[in-house]
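Study this chain:
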Amino acid sequence: MTQQTIDPPVSSSGETAAEDLKQTMQGAGVRPSQGCRNTGIHHAGLHATNPAASAEFYKDILGMEIIGGSALDHPIGATAFLSSRPDEESHEIALFANPAFAHVAFKVSSLAELRAFYSRVVERNIPIKFLANHGVSFAFYFDDPDGNMIEVYWPTGELTRSLHPHMEPLDLSQPDEALLEGITPTHPQALAAARRASGTATVKRRNQVKYVPAETGPAYWGPGDQITFLITGEETGGAFFMAEVLVPPGGGPPPHIHRHEEETFYLQQGTLTIQVGGETLHASPGDFVYLPRGIMHCFKNTGNEDAKFLVVVTPAGLENFFEEAFYPAEDRSAAPPLITEAMLDRLLTAAARHGLEFAPPA
């Protein structure tokens, strides 16, 4: 493998996100994004002298729905919870009479990601204030340098219509099946999706041998490559996802960033030109490439034969993006599907839900 430094090419801006992505896929490059996007603030905990009265204000002025709360004699004091979309978010504002509970909350999309963020905070020697099983979510709390409390949480899918403070202990050293054993959601399908995203739907299988004969794993076509699942987070307890990727000549994805996962490539056949972090790598069979999360990259088959490589993604979860955004490859030998506006819209919608960021137009 050889490498050289390059200046990232620049593309013109399109009128829509789908058009921008389409231009990128048709061969134009873009400048790598310099920003670092967080997981997203999905609710805020505010201090309120009278939570019940303040809740009526948010209901009257902003049209929010009061989901629940507690009286002054509750162990954590008077509270009120509101949501503008209770079928999606258990609450978007939490009001606390006790100012010690004021916080901002960042949501992650899987239990594996919650564990990863917890490990990141601990590794940086940031004190953990407490961990909690809220019923509607698993969460941990810590302070920023100015003493503002931060919550990182994963929603369990238990979207109850009457929300009350729920603060059972949470031990993230326990296996996933133990943590999820007592979850009884109002919407069972929501928990099923959450379990799939966290690699817990078939967690008992992770200690079993798995054999996948050649070309028998589930296969999906994207806008530039075909991916065949070998083992998913459901079978590894959320630890990793592994697949084989086939890239036809000229194929490959546009520049993008994974916010939640690391990727490891092992090239088996053909050649790939990989652009990553301002460098160009020319990979041949037997070459190995490791890509940390948060770094802009893309690859393209610049040869005359199909390229094949194994990819290991850690932690698991990216397979859910492929299932949502790509199309099932009913005939693995058929030509790749045409890149349509519908495909690009589907890709962008799924990317936003799974921490995948495409390079913005210059």
Remarks:
- The chain has a mean pLDDT of 80.
- Residues 2-36+210-358 form a domain with the Jelly Rolls fold (CATH 2.60.120.10).
- The first strand starts at residue 2 and ends at 5.
